[in-house]
Specification:
The protein is of the alpha/beta class. It has eight helices and seven strands; from the N terminus they run αααβαβαββαβααββ. It has one domain: Vaccinia Virus protein VP39 (Rossmann fold, 3-Layer(aba) Sandwich). Helix 3 packs parallel to helix 4. The chain starts with a helix and ends with a strand. The structure holds S-adenosylmethionine.
């Protein structure tokens, strides 16, 4: 595998030295996209939030700043991501930040736990996305929101050839899947050139 392909394949499940490098890089370079995506949500104080595919944990920090007295949970399939996310959030770990290894396919949380679930640059890699959306709906409180934040919005994107296991959906396709999964009032927010945030509410 070429070095670039191997580097980008570490987006799907960061591992080893290259994975650690990608996690540092993503913590920084996903900042503008994530901050814009989160600006589409109104954050009351005291929320309980989950970031699925939390990577190096920078989104957990961003979520904490948005809602005073909040608690955030991070979940990632990669052990390397979990280690990095715990390190990034070490000051509040076990107090307001909880990070676990696991998959979007089978969320290790009880029903109706969260006010907000976020997924930044990760739904491309989730197997059985419709099944994962049902899982997200299960762990959301009634009226809770799910925000999908992506910047690859073209099904023929070159990234899907470069990054192993990556599948892109258009914002309209993601909205249709959220509607199908029973989310309501789903809205698509766009920022040029390709940033998209799709937010659905659990009725
Ligand atoms: C491109 S990275 C994005 C990381 C982070 N959200 C960010 O914006 O920097 C994708 C992350 O999703 C995780 N991931 C992939 N498939 C997953 C799954 N089925 N369940 C949970 N996490 C998953 C990967 O391990 C990786 O850390």
């Amino acid at each position: 595998m070429g070095i670039l392909k191997s580097l980008f394949t570490n987006c799907a499940c960061p591992q080893g030295q290259m994975g650690r490098f990608m996690l540092k890089f993503m913590n920084l370079c996903h900042g503008p996209l994530t901050n814009w995506g989160l600006s589409q949500v109104n954050f009351p104080d005291g929320w309980t939030m989950l970031d699925i595919g939390c990577g190096g944990g920078a989104t957990l920090q961003r979520l904490l700043k948005k809602s005073n007295d909040s608690v955030v949970y991070g979940l990632d399939i990669s052990e390397e991501s979990v280690t990095k996310a715990r390190k990034t959030n070490k000051d509040l770990l076990g107090k307001r930040v909880f990070v676990e290894q696991g998959s979007a396919t089978n969320l290790p949380y009880e029903n109706e736990k969260f006010d907000l679930v976020t997924a930044v640059e990760t739904v491309y890699f989730w197997p059985n996305l419709p099944g994962c959306l049902q899982e997200v709906r299960r762990v959301l409180k009634k009226g809770g929101q799910f925000a999908i934040i992506v910047e690859v919005v073209d099904t023929n994107s070159k990234w899907t050839n470069v990054v192993e296991g990556m599948k892109a959906n258009t914002p309209a396709q993601l909205k249709a899947m959220l509607d199908e999964a029973g989310f309501v009032q789903t809205k698509i927010h766009r920022k040029k050139p390709s940033n998209a945030t799709i937010i659905g509410i659990k009725a």
